[in-house]
Design brief:
Strand content: 25-35%
Radius of gyration: 15 Å
Number of domains: 1
CATH superfamily: Gcn5-related N-acetyltransferase (GNAT)
Shape: globular
CATH architecture: 3-Layer(aba) Sandwich
Mean pLDDT: 91
Length: 149
């Protein structure tokens, strides 16, 4: 399988990888930065990091992993979660979070030093004043976080 290495990746290339490989999400609208996991010359995963989606978490010092996607390569998820946190802290941010579906185990997050801090109910983004088509699973989610301190 080979040792994983980290590489920069453009948002466009990371988004294309997500479109091809993610189980239940399309790419996000944008990012602060994206990183790639490489096994030799093969791209095996990407992490896209941006501003928190929830307004209450968007305090200017917090980032969010908005997409993490791999080909299933061993340890690629925890490798990318760890790299995303280190990069965020190196840029001066104090915390980084991400949401996973409640039915997912969170093993990779725990292995990368992230802590479960909350459970959120699944709900639609559609409201009468701004109707939207839900393109994501509407079910409970778990919020994991890692802090710089």
């Amino acid at each position: 399988m080979g040792r994983l290495t980290l590489a920069p990746i453009t948002f466009e290339d990371a988004a294309a990888f997500v479109r091809e490989h993610h189980r239940h999400h399309t790419p996000p609208q944008g990012h602060k930065f994206s990183l790639a996991a490489m096994a030799g010359a093969q791209l095996v995963g990407v992490v896209i990091v941006g501003r928190p989606v929830a307004r209450r978490r968007d305090d200017g010092m917090t980032l969010e992993v908005t997409r993490l996607c791999t080909t299933g390569h061993k340890n690629a998820c925890s490798f990318l979660y760890g790299a995303a946190a280190r990069a965020a802290f190196a840029l001066g941010y104090s915390r980084i979070g991400t949401y996973i579906l409640k039915r997912e185990p969170g093993t990779s997050l725990t292995a990368a030093g992230w802590k479960l801090i909350a459970e959120t109910p699944g709900k639609s983004w559609s409201v009468p004043s701004r109707a939207r088509e839900d393109k994501h699973p509407i079910e409970p989610k778990l919020l994991f976080e890692r802090s710089a301190a």
